[in-house]
Amino acid sequence: MSDNFELFSTIDDAQIEQIVNDNIESGISETLYPGDERRIFTNAFVALLCTVFAYLNERAKQRLLRYAKAETLDYLGERVNCERLAANPATTTMRYKIQSPLSVIVTVPAGSRVTPDGVLYWKTLTAATIPVGSTEVDIPAESTEGGSVYNGYVAGAINTQVDIVPYISSVENLTTTTGGDDGEPYPLSDEHPDGDDGTGDDNYRERIRKAPAGFSTAGPSDAYEYYALSADASVEDVKVVSEQEAGRIDITATVTGGNVPSSEIIDKILEKCSDKSVRPMNDRVFVYGPELTDYDINIHYYTTEDAESDAITAIEGEGGAIDSYIEWQRAKISRDINPDKLMALLIAAGAKRATITKPVYTALGVTETVTSYTVYKTNDGTVIGYVEASGEADDDVVANARVYENPRLKGAYTTTANAGEYKYTGDSVVSPKGIGELAHFSGNITVTHSTEGE
After folding, report:
1. pLDDT tens readout for residues 97-106
2. What is the CATH number of domain 216-289?
């Protein structure tokens, strides 16, 4: 009977019942009615078989990377030396103060804890002292546990001592807490009550899939992608290119939410991908945040009167079609700005039709080399801009030249320069090629709608 079933497929309970009944009835010459004890036994046997086959199917699927989860996924990761990433703590700087200068040194021990709410805690990373005659000392601190929940506490929000330090009258964080991430948590279950919706497993699974490429020392792109993704749990997407010269590797990365990575994350990626066990001897590795290409949103959509209320919520509400488009557009480096995707989401959300003025289709890829020349305003030497044409130091920039705020000659300060308005500094900036471009929503949005008949 088991020959009729295939593992790694959905078990059809009705099919099991039919096979059992056919086998029973072929060996008995009489009809089995619902009250017959043999029929009752058969029904119980069918339920047992359904449970057994479902269990075996699930256990068999857990042997495959695609279906494995939680600890089973860890075991598969061990085969390729790929461990699940732990959560990272959020960091900040704490300032400890005394009311007035003392004639003794005040010591703040390492590990002194501070809290904003009695629920989340930060601890000092080093011991520090307030010297005689001083009233304060700044100490680096991190959250006692990892997690994104520790991010976003603005300066002054963390201000309650948990571990009381003698003479200290007040404490507060000087900078907004950043850097905390959830790592690759287990899915939510009875065994893991703090688990997530499966995103952690999905990210870990993708790294395991790329891990075999990391065994090579020939420098394939998948290997660099794997190591870059493994540098920090917040790294979300990576693009690796080698388009400038043999042996030069340019890595572009984004972090959670399609954001530009901090210098600390870039340094982590560079360190991970430059290790002598990873990098071929002739490779030179460079790591960047993406080159942002802004786009606006300007749409007018149409609905029927009956569907108007639901459509507005599904399109303009939090998590609606517009939010989904912005999230999709920034999820991948070098993903083209594509208004057709926005149109599809609008229709799926209940729009009858739509007119999309912005964004317009824009092909993205990796940057080319751009050489720009720095200039300053004649009446304010601290204001620096960039122009395309070169000039000698302190020479006037010709009238009508375009002056940009970006060395890649994007985003002009003014459309054109007036005569004598700018002068050259004599310096130039070479912006390298090979940096992945990323669509970035500018924040400029206009959404209107109308109703019309079916």
Report:
1. 999 999 999 9
2. 3.30.300
